[in-house]
Amino acid sequence: MKDASLPQLRTFLRIVERGSLSAAAKDLGTTQPTVSRQLQDLETTYGAALLIRTTRSLRVTDAGRMVYEQARLVVQSDDILRERLMGDDAQVEGRIRIAAPSGFGAFVIAPFCGRFVERYSRVELQLCLSDGRSDLISEGIDVAVRIGQLGDSSLFARPLVALEEILVGHPRWSSRPIARPVDLLTLPWVAFSGLSDGDEVVFERNAHKQKITVMPRFRIDQINGHREALLAGAGIGLIHRYAVDTDIREGRLVQLLPDWQRPEWPVNAMFPVRNPAYRLQAWCAELKNELARIPGTKNAGMFRPV
Question: Where does the record place the HTH lysR-type domain (predicted)?
């Protein structure tokens, strides 16, 4: 039995990620018959159907999913080897498929990606915005930006920044006497369920912690909608500073209990492999440095590709 070739594996990855043979052929700069022949050769090599094709759809079989997961590792290892052999002459080029939360992605990641592709003309970015947790392997994601504490995972994390979370509300709520967290219990709350740590809210000042239990009358799972509800005066709420910094400076919102702090939210770049390709490291390094300039972030230091 012949071994599978690297070009065949690259072609198979692109077919799965693009969802069609014609789109894969266009990306690879070849013809659809060539892509089809490479797929057939790969299926012959492994003695199994990897894809089920109809006139309208393409579905990956169980065998195809196994091949896809291993092919990603093989191709990524080859990319890393090529880039390291190139040394200082390594080029930032190729495709990067990114997953990010919808709100943070729209506010921060999308504008950054626009500047990144403008700087690196040989890079193709695909940004997937969703508040669900993407399966990096099955969805062909190269890097995922995730906010919050990390659970058990087979993924590899690289810290980016920590986000400051603050309590804000419409200016009319600031006329109430608010000196301690317990004073907030008389006010209506708008809760962002996308990153909520529950209805128990902990504040800290001078190493003294105070916990209150709130009963939100309005919950929303999208940060843009959460901000709009706060601007409309629906209640007070916790939100990341980057999303409302301009609103506070221009007087549309006010920060409440500014002397009391909330726990910070860590932001990490998650990779399916320990040593990502150079283009991914470069993207991550520039993102980390850009995030450090955003209001309400804390950066541990400069990140450099290795």
Answer: 1-61
Write out pLDDT tens, residues 140-193: 889 999 998 877 567 888 889 899 999 999 998 888 888 899 999 889 999 887
Kindly report whether the global pTM for this prediction surpasses the value 0.70. no
Complete DSSP assignment for 134-167: --TTTTT-SEEEEES---S-SSEEEEEEEE-EEE
Residues 3-49: tens digit of each pLDDT: 788 888 888 988 888 788 888 887 777 888 888 999 998 999 988 99
- DSSP-based helix, strand, coil % in the chain, nearest 5: 40, 25, 35
Alpha helices per DSSP H over the chain: 6-18, 21-28, 32-46, 62-86, 102-104, 110-119, 223-231, 241-249, 278-291
Of 108, 103, 147, nearest to 266 by C-alpha is 147
Query: CA separation (Å) from 198 to 36, 103, 184, 195?
Result: 51, 19, 16, 9
C-beta atoms surrounding 190 within 10 Å: 25
**Do residues 65 and 27 touch, judged by C-beta distance below 8 A?**
no
For the chain, state the CA radius of gyration: 24
- Alpha-carbon span 283 to 276, nearest angstrom: 11
On the question of pLDDT at 1 being above 60, the answer is no
The answer to whether 210 touches 203, Cβ cutoff 8 Å, is: yes
Helices 278-291 & 62-86 angle (0-180, nearest 10):
80
Q: What angle do CA 49, 53, 58 make, to 5 degrees?
A: 105
Report which residue type is found at 31. T
Task: Please name the residue that has the structure tokens 């990606």.
Answer: 113
* Domains, the chain, ordered by start: 6-86 (1.10.10.10), 91-161+265-298 (3.40.190.10), 165-256 (3.40.190.290)
